[in-house]
């Protein structure tokens, strides 16, 4: 977009208006920009014709995570199902791609824009230092960030669906504290993700507020392998935790298996909480306490917000309800003595 603006002698915003059929530039300027864009390899948009029923339209979704971790991740499978429900009703296609990292994801966006393969994108796994919002603004691609950007950050043409990670972590820590747990370890996901940062920060703040010196977070790649490795390491410490909070169901199930393999009882020796509820949480013994949220609705809302942008609506921030903590057999009063303030188990 910068190259087109420089060669056409206009601003980048003027290029965005012209190439996306938005008001804000004269017809003479629009024609000049389009001629330059064509010379640079940009292809005319089919979005407007598709949305008016004269053709087909597509939205994009790129996931920058190891492919092997996605196949067993119930969250993404349900999220995509919810997205597809809405897109199917609108006769919109979904172009899906898995890449290794965010730079590769950005390269995909640039290629899709140059080829005009998509009319908008759904952005997952927002990062602490995320280059994608600025890139999408530069390209003039409407998008919806699923999960929410850091702090109160907003961008033109970019809606957000925020999850209440702060409230959810506070609820989990509060319940474990009520049960008598004082040494709590959060086995987290990737430390570059904003929702991981929010959960880690909230645990730290709750620990400070409640005087829990044995509470901390350990980051992983979300896989069962790293979840199991970290579980073994923390449980073999001289002062092991009495409660473990896992950032997904796959790591929680792997952690439960490791705990049993070490001869420890769940929940008598160690309580286990999964951030995501799924069938997997009810296929292990004992059944796992988990945070439950309507992930299908999460996907539907994201797709609805994107179609609203494609229809010319304004960007906005929507919020998902606080997840519900479903208590099952994997959490209880710790049998071992615990340190720190508050009541001790007997």
TrEMBL record:
It comes from the Bacteria. The keyword DNA damage does not apply. Transmembrane segments: none annotated. It holds the Pfam family Peripla_BP_3. GO terms for molecular function: DNA-binding transcription factor activity; transcription cis-regulatory region binding. Residues 1-53 form the HTH lacI-type domain. Keywords: DNA-binding, Transcription, Transcription regulation. The keyword Manganese does not apply. This is LacI family transcriptional regulator. It comes from Streptomyces triticagri.
């Amino acid at each position: 977009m910068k190259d087109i603006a420089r060669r056409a002698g206009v601003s980048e915003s003027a290029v965005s208006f012209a190439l996306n059929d938005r008001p804000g530039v004269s017809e003479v300027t629009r024609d000049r920009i389009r001629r330059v864009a064509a010379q640079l390899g940009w292809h005319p948009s089919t979005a407007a014709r598709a949305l008016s029923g004269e053709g087909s339209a597509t939205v994009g979704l790129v996931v920058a995570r190891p492919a092997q971790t996605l196949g067993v991740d119930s969250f993404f499978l349900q999220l995509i199902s919810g997205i597809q429900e809405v897109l199917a009703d609108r006769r919109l296609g979904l172009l899906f791609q898995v890449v290794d990292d965010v730079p590769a994801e950005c390269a995909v966006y640039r290629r899709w824009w140059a080829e005009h393969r998509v009319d908008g994108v759904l952005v997952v796994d927002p990062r602490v230092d995320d280059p994608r919002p600025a890139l999408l603004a530069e390209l003039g691609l409407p998008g919806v960030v699923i999960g929410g950007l850091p702090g109160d950050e907003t961008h033109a043409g970019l809606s957000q669906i925020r999850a209440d990670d702060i409230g959810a972590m506070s609820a989990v820590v509060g319940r474990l504290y009520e049960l008598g747990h004082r040494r709590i370890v959060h086995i987290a996901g990737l430390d570059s993700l904003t929702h991981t940062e929010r959960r880690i920060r909230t645990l730290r703040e709750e620990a400070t507020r409640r005087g829990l010196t044995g509470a901390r977070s350990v980051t992983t790649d979300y896989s069962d392998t790293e979840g199991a490795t970290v579980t073994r390491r923390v449980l073999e410490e001289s002062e092991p935790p009495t409660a473990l909070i896992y950032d997904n169901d796959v790591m929680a199930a792997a952690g439960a298996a490791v705990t049993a393999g070490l001869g420890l009882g769940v929940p008598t020796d160690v309580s286990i909480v999964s951030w995501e509820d799924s069938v997997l949480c009810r296929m292990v013994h004992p059944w796992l306490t988990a945070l439950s949220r309507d992930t299908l609705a999460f996907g539907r809302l994201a797709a609805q917000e994107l179609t609203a942008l494609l229809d010319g609506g304004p960007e906005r921030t929507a919020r998902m309800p606080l997840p519900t903590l479903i208590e099952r057999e994997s959490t209880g009063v710790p049998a071992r003595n615990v340190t720190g303030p508050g009541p001790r188990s007997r």
